[in-house]
Amino acid sequence: MTILCLIANPADPALDSTLVAAIQHETGGEINWLHQRIACEIHAPRGADPEAAARAVIGPRPVDVAVVAATGRRKSILVADMDSTMIEQECIDELADAVGIKGEVARITELAMNGELDFEQALRTRVSLIEGLERSVIEEIRRERITLAPGGRALVHTMKAYGAYTSLVSGGFTLFAEYFARRIGFDEAIANVLEFNGDRLTGTVTSPIVDKSTKLERLLALARERGLPTSATMAVGDGANDLDMIKAAGMGVALHAKPHVAAEASIRIDHGDLTALLYLQGYEEEDIVR
Known about the structure:
It is a single chain. The chain is an alpha/beta fold. It has a domain at 1-71: Alpha-Beta Plaits. Helices cover 39% and strands 23% of the residues. The chain has helices at residues 17-27, 50-58, 91-98, 102-113, 119-128, 135-144, 152-161, 174-184, 212-225, 243-248, 259-264, 276-280; strands at residues 2-8, 30-35, 39-43, 63-69, 77-80, 165-173, 188-192, 194-197, 200-205, 233-237, 251-255, 267-269. It has a six-stranded parallel β-sheet, with helices on both faces. It has a four-stranded antiparallel β-sheet with strand order 2-3-1-4. A two-stranded antiparallel ribbon has the order 8-9. The longest helix is centred in the last third of the chain and has 14 residues, at 212-225. It is elongated.
């Protein structure tokens, strides 16, 4: 059996009973509200493509749609990207801003996240451009410029409360990933290591680079270590280096993703925040740890 999920952003609760009833009229099935005005599911929708039918009814309204399997819906492993996923910024772009070259570096970041540049080459190029940046400045940026993505702590803490293992695997840097993993509540953090000469960046990164293959391998390794099938895993990210793990996971989610990533992922969340990943798994509002 499949379940049709309808999810809005908690900051813009655009899902109402009239809209859900109109969708049910097209798809059939049984309505179950997970959170009024924010998340609803329709069990056993009919038709060859209930997702397309729902999207046609929704039109331009800011409501996400996904179809998930009813069995094995709650996942036991979460692997998440960091930049523009668990946090709202791209850390390398903020570091570049400190030396006055944010525009140049952000352009390279955009091309890399769109899959138009080799990730490792793009990363090494960007890091070389911020050579000499002081550790104290990096720590200040980390403290004052980086914000957590809405719903992230609820996602991680809720999944952990129900027995899941959570991993933050980032193509960014340990100085950020380890810090924000602790703040959010992840069990582990894996990222690239910036190299220093004293307190200043050398403009280099320790090899090997954490890239798309690292993310995929960690997802698969965690499943093996815990004796779980890959169907018990969830992955979330927004860029080209996340696509392999998104496709491999039992529930892979492209969150506010680059267009080609969203197009290739089986589930895309364009409007909701990170709590959408809980609603996709069937968690109700009273289940969520906030």
